[in-house]
Amino acid sequence: VEDPRGESLMYMVSDGSEKPYRLKVRSPNFVNLSASPPMLVGFKISDVPAIMGVMDMCIGETDR
């Protein structure tokens, strides 16, 4: 499955029924978002939008 910024990871576990027992979806931006706190150390708050813009994140797909 593709997202706006690459392929998404899907993890599915079945217990033998028609519905999945567990389903996890991870977007490519989740990795970038989790790496952003170390990247922002030492910068001013006013620099955050520019740094996040360089990462080219699609904020709409981080809410999964």
Molecular structure report:
- This protein is of the alpha+beta class and 64 residues long.
- The protein has one domain.
- 31% of the residues lie in helices and 27% in strands.
- It has a two-stranded antiparallel sheet with strand order 1-2. A two-stranded antiparallel sheet has the order 3-4.
- A hairpin with a 2-residue loop joins strand 1 and strand 2.
How many β-strands, per DSSP?
4
What low-confidence regions span 5 or more consecutive residues with pLDDT below 50? none
Number of domains: 1
Biggest sheet overview: 2 strands, antiparallel
Strand content: 25-35%
Report the end-to-end length measured between terminal Cα atoms.
Answer: 14 Å
Instruction: Give the radius of gyration.
Output: 16 Å
Estimated helix fraction: 25-40%
What is the number of helices?
2
Global structural class: alpha+beta
> Can you tell me the overall shape?
elongated
**Order of neighbouring strands in the sheet with most strands:** 1-2
Mean pLDDT: 84
User: How do the SSEs run, as a string of H and E?
Assistant: EEEEHH
Task: Please summarize what this structure is.
This protein has 64 residues and is of the alpha+beta class. Helices cover 31% and strands 27% of the residues.
Name a few traits of the molecule:
two-stranded antiparallel sheet, 64 residues, two-stranded antiparallel ribbon, 2 helices, alpha+beta
Task: Give the SSE map.
Elements: E1 2-3, E2 6-7, E3 9-14, E4 20-26, H1 28-39, H2 48-55
Antiparallel strand pairs: 1-2, 3-4
